[in-house]
Amino acid sequence: MKRSVFHFLSRINPVVIFLLVLSPGLLFTESAHAQLLKAGTGKSNITANSGNVHDSLFVKALVLKSKNNNLAMITLDAIAVGVIGDIPDDYVENIRKRLSEEYKINNVLVNASHNHYDGFLNGGGKLVDNVEEKTMQAVAKALKNFEAVKVGAGSGFENRISMNRRIKLKDGSVFTIRHANPNMPDDQVVGIGEIDPEIGILRIDRLDGTSKAVVYNFACHPYTGLPGKGVTAEFPGFASKEIEDNLGNGTMAFFLQGATGNITEILYKNVSDYRDCEPFGRMLGASTLKGFREIETAKTKQFSVISKTIELPLRQDISHHIEALEDQEQELLSSLRSTSLNMKTFIPLYIKYALSPDYPSYYSYRYLQEEKEGIEGLKTVDKENKRNIDKYLRNMRAMDKLAQIQENKAFLIIKQAEIEKTNKKTISTEIGGIRIGDFVLVTFPGEPFARVGLNIKEKSPYKHTFLAGYSNGYMHYAPTSDSYKEWGYEIMNCIFAPEWQSIYEQEIQKIIQKL
C-alpha cells in the first residue's frame, strides 16, 4: 500500500506537490463549494413586434441547485399560465418535460405576474409564438453563469399603491371595483377590506458579496396601464428595473405575484387624470431595495422543494345564484315603469334643483309673492319635478345594478359550464412549497384573497413565509369562505366551493412542516 502511494506521488509534477503542501486547504475548496447552493439567472424577451409597445415583456429563469435538489423558478410578464391569455395550456407540462430531459432539472415553479397589459385586454397576440422556446433559452443562459451563492430572507413594506377592491355596502353585500361595473353611490359605502402590504424578499449574493438576484413577492393586480395604453410589464416591470438599475452587477429581479385576488391598484378607476402604473412600480422597487439592504446573506445547505396534488371541492350552488340574480333583474326592470323624464329633460332640471333647492324655478321674490297671494303654483311645479327627478335617479341606480347583474350572470353561466364539463365534484389542484435558507414560499394556481396569504403567514413556524398565486396553472378566483355570502365579481368568477380554503390552508401547513 505504501509503495503504491509513493509511486503515485512520484508521478505528480513537483510544482503541484509544493502547492499542495503549502496550501492544504486547496484540497477541500472545490469540495466545499460543491456542497453550497448554486444559482444562475437568465432572461428572454417575449414581446411580439406588433405595434404599440411601451416596454418589453420578459420570461426570466432563476435556476437553483444543491447537492440533492434543484429548481427552475420561471417568471412571466403575462396574465396567466394557460387558460386565458397567450401562454398555451400545455406550457408548464412541456417545460417540465424538456427541463427534465435536457438539464435533469426536476422541480419547476412558473409564476405569472397577472399583467393585464401583455396584450390580453386587446385580444392577445402581443407575446411571441414561441414562449416555450424563449423559456428554454432563458434557462440555458442561467446555466452559463451558474455559481455558488449566499442567501438571506427578509421583507419590505409598501401600502401606498394597493387597496382592497371589494367595497362593503350598507345592505351587507359587496361590489367589486371594475371597469365593467359602475361604482355604487357613495352613500351606500360603509367600508373596505384589508390588504397585505408586506414584500417578501429572497436575497441571493455571490460569494464575494455582490448581488446576483432578488426574488420579491407582493400582492396587487397589475392592470392600471400607461397613458398610451401600450404593451407594458406594468408595475412589476418598473419595480424590477428600479431594483436592477440600483444594484447593478448584472443583478436580476424576479417578481412573484402574491395573494391578490381582491387587491387592486388604488387609481385603477381614475377618470380625472391619466392612469399611470410606473410611479407604483418605482415605489415598490424602492421599498423592496430598502428591505433588501437590511438582509444579511450566508452560505446555506437548506434547500427543499415539495409539490403535491390535492382535490378541492367544486361549487354546487351556481344555479341558485343565477336564479337569485334573475329575480333581482325582474324586480329592477319592473321598477323602471312610470318614468316621465328622459336624459334631455332630466339634466337641466337636476342642475337647476341642485343649484337652488329652495327656489329652483325662479327667483325667491316670486315665491314670496305667490305665498303672499295664497298661490302655490311654483311649489306645485317643484313638487312634481322633484318627484320625477327622484324617479329618474332611482332608474339610474337600477341601471347600475342591472349592469352588474348582467356581468355577474355571464360569469356564473361560464363557471357553471366549466364545472359541468368536469363531471366531477372536485378538481385536482397542484400546490407546493419551497424553502431556500430561511425563505419559505408556498404556491397556488389561482387568485387567492389576501386573507388566505395572511392566514398562511400567521400559522407558519417560519418568519419569512410567503404565498405566490398564479403558479403552475390558472384556476381563476379563490375567495375566502366567508366572502361567498357577500357576492361580488370574484364570487361570480369562481369554481371552488367555500370549503376549498380550509382544505388548502391545512394542506399547505403540512407542506411547510416538511420543508
For the record, give the distance between the C-alpha atoms at the N and C termini, rounded to a whole number. 45 Å
Give the overall pLDDT as a whole number.
92
Sheet of most strands? 8 strands, mixed
Q: Quickly count the helices.
A: 14
Instruction: Give the class from helix and strand content and strand pairing.
Output: alpha+beta
Broad shape: elongated
Residue share in helices?
25-40%
Report the uncertain regions. 1-10, 14-30
> Rg to the nearest angstrom?
30 Å
Strand segment count: 19
Q: How much β-strand is present in the residues?
A: 15-25%
Sheet with most strands: strand arrangement = 4-3-2-1-5-10-11-12
In short:
With 515 residues, the protein is an alpha+beta fold. The chain has helices at 2-10, 14-22, 26-35, 91-103, 131-144, 234-247, 278-292, 318-335, 343-355, 364-372, 377-422, 450-459, 489-492, 500-514, and strands at 38-45, 58-65, 70-76, 108-112, 147-157, 162-164, 166-169, 174-176, 189-192, 198-206, 211-218, 252-257, 263-265, 303-313, 426-436, 439-443, 447-448, 465-468, 477-478. Helices cover 39% and strands 22% of the residues.
Question: Can you put this structure into words, describing what you see?
Answer:
By secondary structure, the protein is α+β, with helices and mostly antiparallel strands. It is built from 14 helices and 19 strands. Helix 4 (91-103) packs parallel to helix 5, helix 8 runs antiparallel to helix 11 (377-422) and helix 9 (343-355) packs across helix 11 (377-422). Mean pLDDT is 92; it is low at 1-10 and 14-30.
